[in-house]
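so the lab meeting is tmrw and i was supposed to have these ready like two days ago... anyway. pasting both below. for each one the top line is the aa sequence and the line under it is the structure tokens. i havent really looked at them closely yet so no promises
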Amino acid sequence: MSNIFYHFTKNVIKYLSLPFIRLDYKSNWPRSNKAKIYAANHPSTLDPVLVMSALKDTVSILITNSVFQIPIIGYLIRKSGHIPVVSDQGNLAYQHALKQLKTGKSILIFPEGRLSAIDGITYPPFSGVIRLALETKAPIVPIGISFAKDKTFTKNIKIKQKVDMARFFVKGKYALTSGTPINVSGNIFDKIKINSQKSLLMNTINSLAEESALRLYRFRH
């Protein structure tokens, strides 16, 4: 990963978002320098860059491939070492993420694989996050995100003949809460246990998102 591009992009994001978005995070970030898997819910299109700006670790983010097609932005995130996720080619992104973790680098992943529902309800997660943790023994750090829903707007964006729905958080307090790192164990081929572990992870993320929402409620009242 190019630290120059990564930190340049991170600083630009902080500078551009500062007048509009106030990051509020209650963190339990692990002190270890070993590779970690950060896993969060996905209420807005801006989550990858906003979470990245809050993390102390340098991370490779799994981001939908269409974002890589945007002029300038796509160039910067590719040079920063982030990982494109191409539809129907999820294994390529998985192998890239696996390589990053095995070389001691952390990743940020959104287990739902798409934006959460507009009301904040999360979708069932994919199993990749658990399988990555099983293969690498990297701990999963759950993160719950919340913000005022009335500060968002949804727009269909066309990028190179493909239309994607984007949801933008535009102003206010963006709250994140991280939980205690989760260590998973077991057989990578044990689908029943993997399904149980991914459900437990998503429940934890949802609980953290509720904690973030509670801080927002107290802030607004």
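ok protien two:
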Amino acid sequence: MQEGVTILIVEDDDGHASLAERNLRRAGVHNTVTRFADGQDVLEFLYDEEANHPGPDEPGYLMLLDLRMPRVGGLEVLKRIKGDERWSNMPVIMLTTTDNPDEINECHEHGCNSYVTKPVEYEQFVEVLQRIGMFLLVVQVPQVKK
């Protein structure tokens, strides 16, 4: 993955978040990873005017977003991000246990870039995370809009 891009993991399950970061590292992704326990936390971060967000012409963020979380769910986060000119070009990969076709379609309708269902089996989940890591190594992330 291009240098300077920060990966935002928005996941309420501590084990899943830890597993995601660990397997991204194993796949060779060495970018900064910042974890948020729910949608409210990541929205507060993105809309904090005093936060040190990337400026224009700098690589931005890529988000791995769970769908079902307390306080503010992933679909609402996705809608807010994709509806905001500053953040609309941020790549968002939904990474969730939900494989309901209606929810998958709804996420794509609201602008998610990819939708990955977390397998229930541990070994399969690890494999999926490592494949995401390999994918992220070749992804180009757009600059932040001002």
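from a quick look at the 2nd one: The beta strands are 6-10, 33-36, 61-65, 92-96, 114-117. The chain has a mean pLDDT of 90. will dig more after coffe
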